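Moderator note: this is an archived Q&A kept for reference. The question asked for a predicted structure of one protein chain; the sequence and the answer are reproduced below.
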Amino acid sequence: MTKTQEIRTFNFNKRDGTDVDHPLTVSGHASVFNSPTDIAGAFTEQIAPGAFSKTLTENDDIRCLFNHNWDNILGRTKSGTLTLEEDEQGLAFTVDLPDTTAGRDLVVSMERGDIDKCSFGFIPTADKWDYSDPDHPVRTIEEVELFEVSIVTIPAYDDTDAQLNRSKDGQYKLIELVEQRKQIISKIKGELSHE
């Protein structure tokens, strides 16, 4: 199966950075562990604790972007302007915002309350499926390859504390695969009930 990069969306917080020695920072959780989320009515998904530990150890060059746009880099682990760690809640991040047009515009929008969400882009490298209820399978993502976290203007879901957002192509392919598996399980159950 081809691996597709996916995106998730969550809330974040900001600090005002009035101390000139410390730039304006944004912090929060780009992912929340064990938070079941409905994905387009096709299945439930959750991120397992520890899903980011390998990628955080192996990848020392993860970026923080604005709206998943690689032209608008807000911070980078390699430069020390972005820090990422797993805590008991999920994937925690802090980014020191740059004194750039994108950074300044973001500050204004956040102060107005227009922007208050964040997201992350990744490829799942290990997941587990539970089809005990074939109409509502559960996908647990156990390990990811993380590329970026983003501060975003329009998340795909309103309740971003618990909802997840993914790229449309990856979402449609995954939903199609889940629907195929549901049909196979239903067919097997039908055959077994006639025995």
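Archived answer notes: The first helix runs from residue 53 to 58.
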